[in-house]
Amino acid sequence: MLDLSTVRSVLSDEYDLAPSATLANEMQDIYARMDRVVSPPDWAIYAPYVRAINVLKKQRNAVILGHNYMTPEIFHGVSDFVGDSLQLAMKASEVEEDVIVQAGVHFMAETSKILSPQKIVLMPDMQAGCSLAESITAEGIDEMRVKYPGAPVVSYVNTTAEVKAGSDICCTSSNAVQIVNAMDSDTVIMTPDQYLAQNVANESHKNVVYWPGSCIVHEQYTPQDLREFREWNPGTRLIAHPECPPDVVAEADFSGSTSGIIKYVHDEKPERAMLITECSMASNIADELPEVDFVGPCNMCPYMKKITLEKILFVLHTMEGQVEVAEDVAVKARKSVQAMIDLSRKLGL
Ligand code: SF4
């Protein structure tokens, strides 16, 4: 586990990371991307880290891939590419830099390493897991294959490399319906998210059977929450991620992956919107959509929130936190991830 006192002592020896209003002023161009959601005093704290990371990543020939659930200072301040799991996986297979820093959770870093085995992939905190990835092992995939002989296994990218290696193809929330529909079988096994599987089943002509995993952020929402919110805030557009239970999705005005949600809000520009997903999503798009008032509860992913500017700077400085995937596992997992990327490109997703 990363020892924060060691991290701080190493960084303070090398960098001037004291809050600086002067530096914050000099970096107004970056701050302008998040000034609706980050206060000036907080920006004065973040600015020295943002500058140090942006200088160091050039020296290391590194690129930072930031997930949509990162906090705004990471998402807007240091990420070179941002997006959902599918967009980041595709980007990991294309980038030319020697080092990838994954500003996201561990399965995403493994996916990057699987797709770019020759690159160094750095994880700012190895404890940044995912309740979905932790809900199933390779043995679970074997169990499902015994239970449903001949049915293809479509695994969400929120899985370990071993689970991906045991699957036929991966999917993300942005392509799950199309991937399942493209399988050459009436019955399709989906792992590990029971709610994504049920939501896909509602849009697919396949018999979708699934593993009982769930996301600890999205499973918290209930249809009653949405009904009450609508009653108290008439006119608010409710937009749900498909990791939410199906009865929550049914109450929403729209459901989509994080990139689907961003596109929907950009296209529709509702006066008021409540995003039924991880809290940072709304913060990250607030500045580019000043006409939309984002309202509602803030459910944070404790895993995503383990990633901080301080830890990103530390791994870039020390080159610790390198993610490795055993070659035999990586070869099989790559086939499943690549099959998803190829099919997504073929379907124009
Ligand atoms: S938000 Fe849910 S699915 Fe995403 S990393 Fe956190 S626990 Fe996993």
Automatic annotation (TrEMBL):
Binds 1 [4Fe-4S] cluster per subunit. It catalyses: iminosuccinate + dihydroxyacetone phosphate = quinolinate + phosphate + 2 H2O + H(+). Its EC number is 2.5.1.72. Its cofactor is [4Fe-4S] cluster. InterPro entries: NadA, NadA_sf, Quinolinate_synth_type2. It is an enzyme of class 2 (transferase). Gene3D superfamilies: NadA-like. Iminosuccinate binds at H67, S85, Y156, V157, N158, S173, H241, P242, E243, T258. The keyword Transferase applies. Pathway: Cofactor biosynthesis; NAD(+) biosynthesis; quinolinate from iminoaspartate: step 1/1. Pfam families: NadA. Its main location: cytoplasm. It is found in: Cytoplasm. [4Fe-4S] cluster binds at C130, C215, C301. It comes from the Bacteria. Belongs to the quinolinate synthase family. Type 2 subfamily. This is Quinolinate synthase.
